[in-house]
Amino acid sequence: MVVREMLQPHRHHFQADLEAVVRCIEACYECAQACTSCADACLGEPNVENLRRCITLNLNCAAICEATGQILSRQTETDWNLLLSQVSACVIACQLCGDECQKHAHHHQHCQVCADACRRCEEACQRLTATVPTVAH
Amino acid sequence: MVVREMLQPHRHHFQADLEAVVRCIEACYECAQACTSCADACLGEPNVENLRRCITLNLNCAAICEATGQILSRQTETDWNLLLSQVSACVIACQLCGDECQKHAHHHQHCQVCADACRRCEEACQRLTATVPTVAH
Amino acid sequence: MVVREMLQPHRHHFQADLEAVVRCIEACYECAQACTSCADACLGEPNVENLRRCITLNLNCAAICEATGQILSRQTETDWNLLLSQVSACVIACQLCGDECQKHAHHHQHCQVCADACRRCEEACQRLTATVPTVAH
Amino acid sequence: MVVREMLQPHRHHFQADLEAVVRCIEACYECAQACTSCADACLGEPNVENLRRCITLNLNCAAICEATGQILSRQTETDWNLLLSQVSACVIACQLCGDECQKHAHHHQHCQVCADACRRCEEACQRLTATVPTVAH
Most exposed: B16, B65, C83, D54, by fewest CB within 10 Å? Predict the structure, then answer.
């Protein structure tokens, strides 16, 4: 990923900590891919009928992480209230998906890898939220 | 759109009002397309340098409406806390984008059409939120 | 959908037939939603283990239709070779998904509705391709 | 990115070379982010009116790379004809976007970084296509 290099043009105008934004974008794209892949691997498991909630949460988390990573990548005339609201939905998606994947991690290695990606994304979202000055909320 | 026909299999298990969900999904897809198109039309205007905020809000609103319409379309083992959190981000995106488009509506017809689509989506999101029982929040 | 109103600003520069583009964009968004919804309804069926291929094709068709509808909505300085290449991938996605859904249409009404949406999108893509002048290929 | 770990469950059934698929998915997600970010940085440039084609190609390339990375991440009951058709559209998107970004690379560092990401994605797509056995085409 070349997130840091791409955000350089905006470095002077940033309301948020550059490193926190970079890390959050990277985590969102990683988590989007992991969740897309985990939904697919769950679908291929013999006990797919026990993985329905996991698949739905994976697909929803992937969609939300993609949107979040995308809007965080846009910093020209951006609105931080909007970004923080979307990041907040992303935190919930990652928590729910990470918890569900963890339940199946003992039997399915892909669920463990995905749960870890969800945790990293959740943490990156929360760290970003903490760095945005109150005035912007 | 065939949203209503597609949601029939889930009609018995619904925590939310079926018509409110159908309407919200339709409005999200309509708004996603309108915002994508409005960003593009703004980009082609002679005064594009005055439309930077409009373009960014359009692109963000499109991404958020797509994600929201997509996750509302998934009702198997869904989680309403997650859906409501994403719908809440969608309300903010539609408000900001609708307000900005309205400012340019006098000069650009595409901004008027897009502002109207944003309003419809915002209202559909708020009506859906109002129908979901408190216990699900 | 307000596709036609949104494309008006571009009406003078069009290499393709405006109505064919409008129809194709509408069909792409409709099909994207129907496929997302059908994947979800299949996931909720008791015989989900027989619907694996249907779910994968639905999710892939949804992603491809979303991308296709989105890039067709952008007409400022667009490149028709790129658009036609993506439309061509969309035709294949709709054919495969429509065929697979049709196999299950007897047992699952959502598969019938989705198969019909895939057919409409496939036809709209092929009609659009036929209207773009050879010089643009 | 955890692409390799996520694809392990499918390693025995692969028609394509695992490393080529992993590399292509990583390149698609990287390029999607870079193009989203480059469109935004271009929009913020003083000479935005000269960057219209660059912005449109960036946004289209981002949408196509996202769809391509997503469908390559799904390997349960997948269809390689569909994947190759989408990968082929992705090659064209990356070529056009990379060429256009390269024209502006002298003045805009973000265009250079994005042009490089487009080249890597184009190459990864072509290498993947070369590894898929003829029978699957």
Answer: B16
- Structure tokens, B22: 């159908």
Tell me the chain D residues in contact with residue B59 when contact means C-beta distances shorter than 8 Å. 39, 59
Q: Which of B73, B112, B67, B74 is nearest to B89 (CA)?
A: B67
Domain positions in chain B: 3-7+15-131
User: How many residue pairs from chains A and C have C-beta atoms closer than 8 A?
Assistant: 20
**Closest residue to D89, CB basis, from C57, C78, C89:** C89
Instruction: Encode chain D (137 residues) as per-residue pLDDT tens digits.
Output: 999 999 987 666 667 889 999 999 999 999 999 999 999 999 999 999 999 999 999 999 999 999 999 999 999 999 999 999 999 999 999 999 999 999 999 999 999 999 999 999 999 999 999 998 754 44
Q: How far apart are CA D134 and CA A10, in angstroms?
A: 46
Are residues C85 and D88 in contact, defined by beta-carbon separation less than 8 angstroms? yes
Return the CATH fold of C3-7+15-131.
Substrate Binding Domain Of Dnak; Chain:A; Domain 2 (1.20.1270)
User: Chain D residue closest to C83 (CA)?
Assistant: D89
